[in-house]
Design brief:
It is a single chain. About 30% of the residues lie in helices and about 40% in strands. The chain has about 160 residues and is of the alpha+beta class.
């Protein structure tokens, strides 16, 4: 009886220890949420905590920026000008694991109103963004993202 009770208590302790750890899916979700937190605060200083050094960013206009330093420079420029004060709110997030160390995350979001430098006004625009998130040195990090504005059907 003592052995059974000891085994039961040991099992409870192991279960409690593992219950406090975040799952890979929760960690990946938190990394992507960090991106949107930075977007909405327009502060990219903590991006090293959630992106790889070789981060690639494909913007809605098809521009392809390579390397964290270059991506951050671009993001700081647009968030200091026409995206200043703009928010991007997650509507849905789907996570698929390609391997134990790689996930593809698809997010639909809604952006507040903004006007691009060419004078085009974007109101209540929905975006779909795909992230490639990888585990490096035990941490999940964004390695690539592509942002696409969702076209509304013409009426």
């Amino acid at each position: 009886m003592k052995t059974a009770l000891f085994n039961f208590l040991a099992l409870l302790l192991v279960w409690a220890a593992f219950g406090e750890q975040q799952t890979d899916e929760q960690q990946v979700r938190a990394v992507v949420q960090s991106f949107y937190t930075a977007f909405n605060s327009h502060g990219w200083k903590d991006a090293t905590a959630f992106t790889t050094e070789d981060w690639n960013h494909i913007n809605p206009l098809g521009g392809w920026t390579r390397g964290r330093a270059a991506v951050l420079k671009e993001l700081e420029e647009v968030h200091g000008t026409f995206l200043k004060g703009v928010s991007d709110t997650i509507e849905d997030m789907a996570i698929r694991f390609a391997s134990p160390d790689a996930a593809v995350v698809t997010v639909t979001s809604r952006m507040s109103t903004f006007t691009t430098p060419d004078g085009t006004r974007h109101e209540n625009e929905q975006h779909i963004r795909t992230f490639v998130v990888v585990r490096r040195d035990g941490h999940w990090l964004i390695m690539q993202d592509q942002n696409t504005a969702v076209e509304r059907p013409k009426t």
